[in-house]
Amino acid sequence: MTSASIARKVSGRSLLPLLVALLLPLLSLAPARAEEGEPIVLTPAIGVENGGIAFGANLRYFFLPNLAGEIDGAYGDSLCQNCRLSATTLTGNLVYEIHPIDRLALYAAAGGGAALLDLSSPRSARATLGEVDCGAGIIFALSSSVGISLEDRWFLPVSGAIPDASPGAITLDRIFLGVSVGF
């Protein structure tokens, strides 16, 4: 991956969270999940991370009608041009959710945490890095407490490095499909 393609990917991805963050306040008058009496939401998910398989889960607690704290953990194998990299992430996030129509929730998430990266080729290496993450998603309610979620999260290391891995390889783009269950 060349530095020009990394720059295109970064610049293309950085506009989506900004656009979502600008539009969410306009729609915030819609009803929120916490008002429905289910302030805790668990979402196990499976998806794709940089071309490889990934799985994980997040747990949200809505302490305000549209605002939740979240713990997110995941594992994924990234397919890079010249390497194989697995990443285990654990982050804490703030999630802002709106409900423009009855069965649909839109949300934006941002936060930070740590990533344990394990490089297995071309040479073995391991590192724990600090990271920030942001993303957006939708949840379609199947019932009052169960929904299908689709989200895209972008993870960017802010400290440390891993030998023999290009900067683009340790920037993770994770797309998840999950089942959200409210308690």
Give a short synopsis of this structure.
The chain is mainly β and 183 residues long. It contains one helix and eight strands; from the N terminus they run αββββββββ. The chain has a single domain, classed as Porin (Beta Barrel).
Strand order of the largest sheet: 1-2-3-4-5-6-7-8
* Total helical segments: 1
Query: What Rg is obtained from the alpha carbons, in whole angstroms?
Result: 17 Å
Going by helix content, strand content and strand pairing, the class is mainly beta
Termini Cα gap: 43 Å
Organism: mine drainage metagenome
InterPro entries: OMP/PagP_B-barrel
Protein name: Outer membrane protein beta-barrel domain-containing protein
Protein described:
The protein has 183 residues and is mainly beta. It has one helix at 3-23; strands at residues 40-49, 52-64, 67-79, 84-101, 104-121, 125-141, 146-157, 172-182. A hairpin with a 4-residue loop joins strand 6 and strand 7. It is elongated, with a radius of gyration of 17 Å. The relative contact order is 0.21.
